[in-house]
């Protein structure tokens, strides 16, 4: 007679199964269940955020100097895009660096899990 569970492998025989007794406690939980592992620091993402922050800061400074006229330009209509690109690059770098700083200091509500990880 064939089993109705074709394709499933049976578990180990009861004599070969390894069991261990749980510690006697009132609720059945052990402390190891609730211990958090130390956070994994996303170094690549923090390095990318620092790079974006520095490049954005540099572009903002250059754009401001171009706009103020401290740097001579032949085409003044190209100064605003430098400033806009600088702001667009600066903002995500600053945001992720701020999260990394607060997470490293242990502030409540901030963790390294909020920073995207590129180690996939």
Distinctive features:
120 residues, 2 helices, mainly alpha
Description of the molecule:
The chain is mainly alpha-helical. The chain is 44% helix and 0% strand. The protein has 2 helices and no strands. The mean pLDDT is 82.
Write the layout of secondary structure elements.
Layout: H1 43-68, H2 79-105
Helix pairs in contact: 1-2
Rg result: 28 Å
Question: Quick check: average pLDDT?
Answer: 82
Shape: elongated
List low-pLDDT spans: none
| Straight-line distance between termini | 49 Å
What percentage of the residues does DSSP assign to strands (E)?
under 5%
* Total of helices: 2
- Helix and strand element order: HH
**Helix-strand makeup class:** mainly alpha
Largest sheet properties: none
| Oligomeric description of these chains | single chain
Roughly how much helix do the residues carry, as a percent range? 40-55%
The total count of strands amounts to 0
């Amino acid at each position: 007679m064939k089993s109705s569970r074709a394709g499933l492998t049976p578990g180990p025989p009861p004599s070969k199964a390894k069991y261990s007794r749980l510690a006697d406690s009132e609720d059945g939980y052990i402390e190891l269940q609730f211990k958090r592992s130390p956070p994994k620091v996303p170094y690549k993402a923090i390095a990318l955020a620092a790079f974006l922050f520095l490049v954005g800061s540099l572009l903002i400074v250059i754009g401001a100097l171009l706009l103020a006229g401290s740097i001579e330009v032949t085409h003044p209509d190209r100064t605003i895009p430098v400033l806009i690109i600088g702001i667009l690059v600066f903002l995500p770098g600053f945001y992720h660096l701020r999260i990394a700083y607060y997470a490293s200091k242990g502030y409540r509500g901030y963790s390294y899990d909020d920073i995207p990880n590129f180690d996939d």
